Amino acid sequence: MFKRFRRLRLNETLRNLVQETTLSKNDFIYPLFVKEGKAVKVEVSSMPGVFQMSIDEILKECEYLQKIGLNSIILFAIPDLKDSVGSECLDDESIIARTIKAIKEKFPNMFIVTDLCFCEYTDHGHCGILDPKTQSVHNDKTLEISALQALVHARAGADMIAPSGMMDGIISTLRKTLDENGFQDLPIMAYSTKFASGYYGPFRDVAESTPSFGDRRTYQMDVANRLEAINETLEDEKEGADILMVKPALAFLDIVRDIRNETKLPLCVYNVSGEYAMIKHAGLAGLIDYERVVMETMIAFKRAGANIIISYHAKEVCEILNRN
Ligand code: PBG
Ligand code: ZN
């Protein structure tokens, strides 16, 4: 006697009944890149389908996103002005603040997450203030300006703040700052496990944030380290993070599962630019069934234990879900 597993795969209805993991439009956050100007919509060559957009174009995009049932975005800004300390993003009239206000005015229930970092705003392209002694990012000075940036986002009307610079103590710093300034109800999504990854390449094209020297290995994590990932994540939870994250996603699903088993908090994965580019270009070259591979990849994130998926595919996924 042997067990007949195929009994439960006989037809689609039965297969759907026993399906363990599902995808919904509610699972997704869609990244948007805002740039100064009017009527600017520039496609990123390494990421077909992803654009740098001026605020007026971002508003059109938000209208479409809401129409297809995609209600959450994560915003990145590409400023005209860059300097050594990223002053642009510390101003209430910064491009990201103006974008948040413009979106909230037209689409008050669009959920806006803001990426909080300095690499898009510094002329050297690193994620904070440089320590002249080490030529690496100065942790505690960067915490101070991160608190200021968080308040700019909060006052503009952001719904959730996601610090991505990997400075130690960032979560407790932001929680304290937000609480002391009347933003007790503003959640923080920690980029709690962010690896120093080659998969960020195309993002740095679109965000114009490639470091002018060196790399990010003194603040982002070593891709070889599993215990360190769990350790950092649990520390962010202790410091008061509301949602945790693993980034990149595809090559790190073991970490997603480990963290899922260690915490009760919601867990997000960031399906990053290089992952998008690989599947997109393979699809455009006719090498794979693009939509099928995209959906398989998204289900893999959920199956590994993620509740929330940040993905450049999010718009296409919602369009596919609407068709079915
Ligand atoms: C900024 C930031 C990066 C990404 C998100 N926030 C780039 C980096 O750390 O170099 C990567 C996103 C992607 O590759 O899609 N710190
Ligand atoms: Zn950064």
Automatic annotation (TrEMBL):
SMART domains: ALAD. One of its GO terms (molecular function) is porphobilinogen synthase activity. SUPFAM superfamilies: Aldolase. Pathway: Porphyrin-containing compound metabolism; protoporphyrin-IX biosynthesis; coproporphyrinogen-III from 5-aminolevulinate: step 1/4. InterPro entries: ALAD (IPR001731), Aldolase_TIM (IPR013785). Signal peptide: none annotated. The keyword Secreted does not apply. It catalyses: 2 5-aminolevulinate = porphobilinogen + 2 H2O + H(+). Transmembrane segments: none annotated. It is an enzyme of class 4 (lyase). Keywords: Heme biosynthesis, Lyase, Porphyrin biosynthesis. Its EC number is 4.2.1.24. Belongs to the ALAD family. PANTHER family: DELTA-AMINOLEVULINIC ACID DEHYDRATASE (PTHR11458:SF0). This is Delta-aminolevulinic acid dehydratase. It comes from Arcobacter porcinus. The gene is hemB.
